[in-house]
Amino acid sequence: MKIMSGVSVTTLLVSLVVGVSPAAAAPQRTERPFRIAAECTTEPTDRGVRKSCDSDVTSFPAPAGFWIDQSSVKGEYTSAAGSENSINITYDGLVPVIANVPQTALPTIINVSVHARSPKGLSPRRGWSKAIVTGTMFSLS
Fold first, then answer.
1. Containing domain of residue 110, as a range?
2. 88 exposure class (CB count in 10 Å sphere: 0-12, 13-18, 19+)
3. For position 2, what pLDDT does the model report?
4. What is the annotated signal peptide range for this record (predicted)?
5. Contact between residue 135 and residue 34 where contact means Cβ atoms under 8 Å apart
6. Whole-angstrom Cα distance, residue 140 to residue 29?
7. 8 A C-beta contact, residue 48 and residue 124
8. Residue 98 lies in a domain
């Protein structure tokens, strides 16, 4: 079976189920940006013993009918210090884009947290991670 150039599999499936041409079946994509901030600061290193911190997890649920576009998600540090820093991103709330087709499931919730560890050595300095995670959520109509 030859697949038409420039036509997504989702569009072909919808056109087959509904019985219309792929061009008429193409759903309209609506996008909305999101932005999540996270930060944590450690206690100072104490006589060579480093301290760690983890921010609270911030969960952002997309509105009903929207999914998180994982390919658009980017995490950037606005400020960081110490011997370890990380941005942690996980996804939950998988919902099929095409009803009753679990293989098309995409996340509707994004979870963000950051981690930091104070510097190595004997100097009493703190570590911190401050980050922004941005991305896009989308709906199809």
1. 27-140
2. middle
3. 42
4. 1-25
5. yes
6. 5
7. no
8. yes
Pick the closest to residue 51 from 99, 1, 140, 120 (CA basis): 120
The rounded distance, in Å, linking the Cα atoms of 40 and 85 is 10
Element (H, E) at 96: strand 95-96
Can you tell me the distance from the alpha carbon of 28 to that of 9, in angstroms, rounded to the nearest whole number? 15
Whether 10 is covered by a domain: the verdict is no
The radius of gyration of the chain's CA atoms, rounded to the nearest angstrom, is 21
Please answer whether residues 28 and 141 qualify as being in contact, where contact means their C-beta atoms are separated by less than 8 angstroms.
Answer: yes
Coil/strand/helix, residue 15:
helix
pTM to 2 decimal places:
0.78
The verdict on residue 41 lying in a domain is yes
Count the domains in the chain: 1
Nearest C-alpha neighbor of 112 from the set 93, 95, 134, 137: 134
> How far is 132 from 44, CA to CA, in rounded Å?
24
